[in-house]
Fold these 3 entries.
Entry 1:
Amino acid sequence: MNFLRGVMGAQSGGPQPSGAETIQKLCDRVASSTLLDDRRDAVRALKSLSKKYRLEVGIQAMPHLIHVLQTDRSDSEIIGYALDTLYNIMSNDLEEEEQEENSQKQVEDLGSQFTEIFIKQQENVTLLLTYLEEFDFHVRWPGVKLLTVLLKQQGPHVQQIILVSPMGVSRLMDLLADSREVIRNDGVLLLQQLTKSNAAIQKIVAFENAFERLLDIITDEGNSDGGIVVEDCLLLLQNLLKNNNSNQNFFKEGSYIQRMKPWFEVGDDNAGWSAQKVTNLHLMLQLVRVLVSPTNPPGATSSCQKAMFHCGLLQQLCTILMATGVPADILTETINTVSEVIRGCQMNQDYFASVNAPSNPPRPAIVVLLMSMVNERQPFVLRCAVLYCFQCFLYKNEKGQGEIVSTLLPSTIDATGNSVSAGQLLCGGLFSTDSLSNWCAAVALAHALQENATLKEQLLRVQLATSIGNPPVSLLQQCTNILSQGDKIDRRGSKVQTRVGLLMLLCTWLSNCPIAVTHFLHNPANVPFLTGQIAENLGEEEHLVQGLCALLLGISIYYNDNSLENYKKEKLKQLIEKRIGKENFIEKLGFISKHEFYSRAAQKPQPSFSSPDHMMFDHEFTKLVKELEGILTKAVYKSSEEDKQEEEVKKSLEQHDSIVTHYKNVIRVQDQELEELKKQVESLKVQNEQLQTAVSQQVSQIQQHKDQYNLLKVQLGKDNQHHSSHSDVAQMNGVQPKEISKLHEEVEEWKHKLQLLQEQLREKDSLIETLKLSPTAAGGTEQSSQTNKSSGPEVDSELYKEVETLRTQIQAQSADVIKLQSEKQELLQKLSITPVPVSGDDGTVMVAKTACLEGRLLTLLQGTKELKNEIAALSEEKASLKQQLDSSNSTVAILQNEKTKLQQEVAESKKEQDDLLVLLADQDQKIIALKNKLKELGEPVEDEDDTESGDQGEEDEEDDGEEEEEEDD
């Protein structure tokens, strides 16, 4: 600090040093001091002097400051002072008291010169970009401000340096992610300067996720209610999107249009419209217009318009349009925005036609807007915006044009008169005392007729009631009356603006509509009025009216169908030659395109005029003038013979066009039929394949059933031959091998029991025999009789009874056995099974065995019946499958016949197309011959059909190739 005091002349006795000397000493200190603290103090002092002594510091200190940036990178404080000092000497944003009015230009040149010196070495800009990566606030913020000043002073040069610098743009994009708002906000300002008029940098910034970050900032700041940061973000978005189709497409595909809808969610309260909010909303509307501007490629504009409809943005804009309490400038810009969102988009135009104003009763938005357009108390810019909206609504919208014209026709006018229609408003504005309303209504009605010959003819039916007691006159007659009568009708005809509007309406109405020309010429006062206006030598203010009168008279000649004897083409030409002169007529016709108002209107569709007096031409009308000017000039100079030849050529061309159109339609119909036949063939092929697969499946199923049937037949034959094979029959009837083994075991058990019973029976038989022999043996000896006197008679009687009972039982059992054997024999005979002999005499065992056998036989009988039923069912199924197979074969045959017929039809259509091509070739030869004749006669002929014929040939070759492929199929 002692050093600074000495440098600044703090000693009381010495002379005060000048600013240049002080700066020189500080620069020497920066260059020669070895201590970092001394250099830092010197740079701080230079910073404090840089605003007052800007020139001296810039000249003497800039090299030393750059050296500090290169060598003292480790100390953030001295780097910050150096960057601030450079910013002060290059920036022109000084305080007002520091700038003198007479030296303002010198100050601006000074900043630009210092900037040029700094960026002469590209390494300086690259070094500055590296400091922007530092997170230290005292380094990063001054670096951002310094780079912004460099871009303001020498934008294109600095942009090129940053563009070739590795990761230069990416380093700057990181500023938007800084958590410190001051750096982030200044980063937005830096990117504004960086992206001006440089499409390459705009694309890089957009693909560095700029849209996402900027929209997040706008949302965080409160959308339209945000502060100046929102305004800066919107300006940066405009830089990125305006006249940059790539970024616009990226913005649309990234679904960022949907995020714009919350911007326009505004209330109806008047207190919520601050100045910043109005500015923000104005920029937001302009950003929407950038995406749907008529100067953009049609495809890109159309896709953005559809996206705005689907996300609800158009509906939100229409809500603002019909809301109350909206500031006038915001309402005007909203009308312009809605105009371009619906321009040329049928879907959006249909929606706009359905919008109603929140009134009682509800009125269509179009009617409400037209009321503002024809109201002379409304602001001029608002009326221009409404006119533009109406023009955009009718642009390429035949449906909307028909709806507007229908409100003028007698059959659709409301008899009660309660509702005001668009047609009534246009007629009221067309004949009001306000010349601006006359002009706007005439232009609006002309747009309702644009390129629509049908509506031009229908508008001839419109009748107007002029006054009580007088018959109604047509709309065409009323327009010509106002033109011809001049000052007699409320002095309206004397106003140039009114007459220009009516003449533009008449020219649009009569062009390409011979019936309207006939109606116009039917009034005997119209042609003398036009020739009188053209022939007079009036002032410059009337040149425009004279030119439009010449245009209207030329249209009456060119589109004249010679249906009126007194106003044929040749007589009108003679009248021009006698009354006006051909050269004078052409000169007056050229007044239109030479007028400055014509050039302004031809630039863009939106009507933009500095004052109401400058509203003379419409954009679409300038296109009509450009199209007709050369044609009408040729038409006036042509003789009657040339007209006849031209008429013949026209007729031949029209005939040729009609023939070509007819054949095109025929070919188009045949192409459609071929496409339908192709689709039918494809569907029949698919059906054929499905049926073939179904038939193959059915054939395989039939084969399986046949195999099963043969197997069952073989098995049944074996059972009839070998009845003893119970296991097979049991298995066929559902009896498992386990059951068969169990039955065998039961049979063995019964055999064992039978043997036991037979042994018991033998023992009893032997006992009976012994009992039979016992009485004879006892009677022979006396001793035995004496010993058995007491017990003999009782025993004999008991045994006898027992024997008798046994005999009766055996006899009964034997009878039962015999009976059972006979029944068994009968059953076996019925089944044709030989009986199995059973040995043994025991009746009980035989009865049991017979019962068991009967149960087995019944089971076999039931199984046999079930087998017979299954065989019958299989036979029926086989018959049904045969029928299905026969029907499938017949269906395949029918499909094959249909395919053959289709191929024959394709061949016939190909032959017809070949014949048509031959006819077209003949017509082309005739056209070429006619064109050669015209060229020999000296008439210029445009070969417009060459390209079309070439394209048609290629299409025919492609069609032939497709037909050959179909025949091969």
Entry 2:
Amino acid sequence: MELKHPTSVIDFTDSLEYKGQKYIYWSLNKAEKYFNADFNKVPYSLRILIESQLRAYEKEEISFQSLYQIISNSGDQSEDSVIFYPSRVVVQDYTGVPLLVDLATLREKVKSNGGNPTRVNPVVQTDIVVDHSIQVDYSGTQNALTLNSDREYERNKERYNILKWAETSLENIRIFPPGSGIIHQINLEYLSSLIKINDNKLIPDSVIGTDSHTTMINAMGTLGWGVGGIEAESVMLGYPLKFPLPKVVGVKLTGELGFEVNTTDLVLTLTERLRKNNVVNHFVEFFGPGLNSLSLEERATISNMAPEFGATCAYFPIDEESFNYMKKTGRSESLIELAKLYYKNQGLFYKPENFSPVYTKTIEVCLNDVTTCVSGPNRPQDRIEINNLKRQFSKLLKDKYGIRSIDTHKAKSKETTLRHGSILIAAITSCTNTSNPKVMVAAGLLAKNAVKRGLSIPNYVKTSFSPGSKVVSDYLETASLTPYLDKLGFNITGYGCMTCSGSSGPLDPLLEKEIAENNLIVSSILSGNRNFEGRIHKSIKSNFLASPPLVVAYAISGRIDIDLETEPLGFDNNGKPVYLHEIWPSNKEIQTLIAESISPDLFKYRYENKAYESQRWRDIPKEKGELYAWNRDSTYLRKPTAFFKDINNSHSIELVDGRVLALLGDSVTTDHISPGGEIPIESPAAKYLLEKGVEPKNFNTYGSRRGNHEVMIRGTFGNVRLRNKLLDNQEGGLTKHIPSGEIMSIFDASYIYSNQNVPLIIMAGKEYGSGSSRDWAAKGTSLLGVKMVIAESFERIHRSNLIYMGVLPAKFKDGESWRSLSLDGTEKYQLNFSYDSLLDQEIHIKAYKGNGDIIEFSVIPSIDTAEEQECYRNGGILNQMVKQLLNNQASV
């Protein structure tokens, strides 16, 4: 049925009263009745999007017909996109600093073209949390936190200047300085309010962030997900997100987790299951009786890892647990009551007794079937039960590295010599797990039981503990667990992402030498969310994700090739073997200690009193000004004028005699494309810094230097584990220049190609661009002169980031790949296409081989909406924003 278009805009607002105050909201119930729809069949996450469409319709930003199609679940047929105005933006500093560099440059660009630079100003509340700057330079000592914080300020003072400028010169910017905690845990514990109130109008709290794990907030019932920094900039300036109506996969949870099984085991199981079910670009929504046994913090662990599923978000509908958590974390009673009233009036409160949504597909997971596990050695979805890890590690050594035997000698004393499987890094890290008191208290209790049995950790294991907020250390201290963690070497090293983001710091040079000389396959174990190749440490090739108590257990054993169910962790002072099950804490112990140690007052003290802010941060001078005062000598912050291009008015593009810069396989991550960790001494980025007078000890990381495009372009495709198929069995950021055949860095090759006006192509396999939503993976690709990336499939965020940087993502046709087409990357490529028809055309390509053969094939532009097509035609989002600001079209 198709409704007749009304002659005037329909009013879908309604009102509610709370404590004598009248509030207006956009009513889903009124829309449901008007369109004769049944919202009980609509997933909760889509209902929130429908609420956003009601507001967009009132502003006449979408048509009545488009609104009708979305509400009637026929949005797939709509030519209009869903319009989503997030109420907040959250940003971490690795993306926040380059984002502010872009805004500062955008202001200058607007002013130089006769516009008003102050129109480049956030209109949406934006919180920047400095959580990526700190590294594990020092560990295993009581003063590790102080020493690491000192180094953090020494290295990053230039970066912090632009944060101070933004805090005083831009509106709606709030900075959480170094030492505050991790962005997503702060978002969960403090920033999210479930509702936003503006002039007595109520809307659901919603958020997008410049980190893919922004999805963690879905656990509260707040809809949000990660986008690239360049996409976040447009939202900050008042532009909505526009995208096709997403498909929603329902995950029905039943049963309860068993003894010795925790939420980390569950989320690794879900990651494996959902990856196999291909939920890329989908919303995932959880329901079922299993929800009753999961606390909100446990749900947060699950929501946090939606990017590892491949999903856009992992949503838990709002229920009583959402409001219980708000109360536990010190939110005001009036806010909680008003939010509960709003969500119940809207039909957004989870009612399992009246639950019948229609999902794209439904997956059932029984919590009783979840077993204790880890994931690795380099992908989060590669789950291994702990009783099978020893066997799997031996298989890895044999299959990947050709190593057929391993020293399995068991000693009662500490090992003094490394071998395959030795654990070099053991880190309790990442908001994925440190936001969950159950696993944190479990880790503390296990440490306590281990110390009482006389166990210790081998001295070659670098241990670290980096909580996601100071509340964690507060309650562990209250529970008297800190001394035991310290005794084992898990002293607090800092409040930030640290090892999880690749900032694991240096290893002992003697150990690195031993690893290199003996080609050892050593390991790390961490409670993070990513274990991609080259991410944790360049010398460690096998990395495993695990729960915090398992991190402690494996650290004690000192090796990854152990069966924790049958082999002892070590031996006590009497030479008696100590097994994991003997020191594993019971659920009753954990719950009792949580009840005794955690209160709303801990959260109120840390957040309401700004107890997270240090005097050192307050002492940094504030520089207020319409334009940012660039320091020409800075090696951290450079004005990125190359991002702003002069675009001609042609309607087509022709690529003649193009070359392949890199020929890549499956699962190439944004860590491969734009590494965030240490800058290798032999890299092009290091050469640049040395020429600028920077000593190697002050190189810092790629992530910290994302405000300098000169460093970042040299680091693009610079991961030490990248495998470019143009080369034979070589790793690193190298390529073969065609036609000379000379092997050189990808940066140097791109420079030569650029001087010869040769357009460049990247070719890849499946899941290209998975991983963190770092915009520099797209920015660097663009600056290298790459015009097109052709892959079998793309991860959502990187695909859109490429478009926003003026690089065309295109997919091979189903069943085809560069391998099946017999392409080897040495060919010359020719193609042309129209900017105006990328939504409905294939692009025909001719590849000319050196022997005269021609391979012809077609690819499909991976552009989903008319808005993306227009953005690409404009040469990217930054160019488009300048045009709109100068034409007074932006809503800022």
Entry 3:
Amino acid sequence: MLRTAPFRGRARLTAALSVAALTGCTVAAGLAPVSASAAEPTGQSMNAEEFTVETLPDGGARVTLRLAEPLPVRDAAPEIAVDGRVVGPAKESPDGLSLSVETSDTSVTGADRVDVAWNGQVPGAAATPPKSAAAPVTPKGLRRKQLYTDPSQPGPYGVQRLDYDLGDTATTLSGLSDLPVELRSAVYAPAAAKGARPVVIFLHGRHSACYNPTTRSTNNTNWPCAAGFVPIDSYLGYTETAEALATHGYVVVSVSANGINAKDASFTDDNGALARGQLVMNHLDLLKKWNTTAGHPLAGRLDLSNVGLMGHSRGGEGVVEAALLNSGNKHPYGIRAVLPLAPVDFGRPTLPEVPMTVLLPYCDGDVSNQQGQHFYDDTRYSVPDNVLRSSLMIMGANHNFFNTEWTPGVSIAPSNDDWSPATDEVCGSASPSRLTAAEQRAVGTAYMAGFFRLAQGGETAFLPLFDGTNGTVPSAGRAVVYAQAQQPGSRRLDLAPLEGPADGVSVTGFDLGAYCYSLAARVRPGDTPCSATTATSKVPHWTPATFAPSVPISPVLRLQWSAASVSPEVRVDLGPGEGNVTKYDALTFRAARDETAAGDVDLDVTVVDRRGATATVRVGDVSPALTPFPSSANTTNGISRLGKTWLRTVRLPLATLTGVDLHSVRTVSVRPATATGGVYLSDLALDSPGVGGGVATSAVAVDLADATAAEGDGPGVATMRLTLNGKLKQAATVQVQTAASGSASAGQVPAQAFPVTIPKGATSATIEVPLAGNTVANTASLRYKITISAPVGAVIGDGFAWLTVLDDDTV
């Protein structure tokens, strides 16, 4: 039986909409026409009919923007910007012609302009690129290791298609307000392969559900499709990768999710993550049934103790949710590998104990802030485990072209290049650095097929593609892929995660030497932000999560130095019993160039043994990590989406550290190798590459339950309950976001984030949500979405709940 969250859906939505109908709301006079530009990916402009700003009874405000036509269907969540400033994620109406957001910021009542924004950026005119692009910076230290085997090459089996289709309304999903969706899949099986074979599930992302073959128009508000429209077969878009795996003995099941895509904007609390996870689990349940049904074409052919999951875009968040749902089953499937491809991450769950690789396209014009990086960052130290995880940046790749049904010139239904403008000198369609659609599919197949054959099939020849040693294969062609990698716990010694002050770690002499997190607008007073940019697309590590915008994110060590710095150094002393490092292959850490740095930036890493002997390696000699990523002259409101700051793994092979005794290492130090500069550092460790093993995570899952509280006459708290599906062996922490984006957010519950610690041995706990309270009589009560995320020592089960605040004042 599936573990499902408490009901989230139509009844709750109806209640939320009833708040919008409150009597006594005042509406700003003078409705003004506005421009609601899609900006990314096509730059197409649409004229909105009008916007309204309503004052809510408790002092908050609701901004509603009405559109002349529905928004382009994207995986990124739409946002509303008032006078050039993003207010929050927008809730879409069922017909797609209205967007709304509620806020406690009453300055919006004086709005002159309301726009649709994407990924924190407000639409604006693109700057004209220079007539000739600047010469690209050659990455220092980039050495690509050619592997002797290629995962794209066909194997010994032919491919047998065993597709199934149970209809457009075959099942309902509680995560989609119990609305009906299809059960339809393309199945690629190895012909004549004996015995039970590993299974891989593919889940596509959010694309239009239907199109009209005659008019070539699309529709994403009806499911099943309206008269004259037929489904868009997004699930058929990964055939090249599916066949590459099937010829090597894997059964690949590519799932259709059009019913979710048509309804997730209006009938979910989480943009469809739970529904997508439930859909994957429903298909696994079908496969389990058929595997034991005599005479069925799949009978006896499926090894459901060896399952891999790939999800594209919102499907990436969906397969993470599926793996978490699976872990709550009494008899879970053996999910051994999860690959989010260009994923969204709206709620910041973690997925420990399962090998995971995140693929990020540098030229992603849809999920342009690469927020799926959070799956890697948040999971690293969340629960001790023994699996490989990596995050890979694919240069020159966009969001759509991994799927043939989302690729112009190849797809049957209408499709587009999500990156704009086409003239961009780095990511534009005519740029020499941009991969063609065929090249992008080829590199996607190489890495997707390689990962599942590595994690599920034990083919360690593919490990260099994912472990940070810069492996490549012929089918990847000219594509450059950069890596972050964390090796399994049994093959790694963490010397200094560099997330905060720690014993044995000293930072001295720098102009700035501080632990930072999040963006400048998202840190507590007195703390150090990692970046001051307002363009979240430039900083994937620190882009705020849609439903947890105030929760601290991705702490690292930030260093800046100049000629005036006095002996700047980061020094890490090895602890008792750690000096003998001979069992490891390399000293590793993640590094990125600080975006404020100019000119050449480099570091020296020195290892000192107990006798005082030293060996020094210059980072630029062995790694491109401190070389800037390519930037573009095309801007939105003066800010480019490119020139990203993204940490890359630096590996210093211990075999190159001649002259020191590796049986008795005493310290590791990092010093500037250039007169000026700035860097971000993280995850200093000793390790040896490996995959490790894991299936369903054993971490305790934490659920947040709905609650109701009286408003009170002044400051107070509302108590909400956390329930756990087991007893904690160690204390755990979850981050609470109050008045989460997309909720009825006005003054009674201030929007903020704070941690809650759950003690060892607990099976339940409570959180106290601050209430403002007042003595003003309202005509109705309000509801607020509360989110838990970014757990440490546990995982998230149902991370969304509603707090209903009852007005207790006499009218």
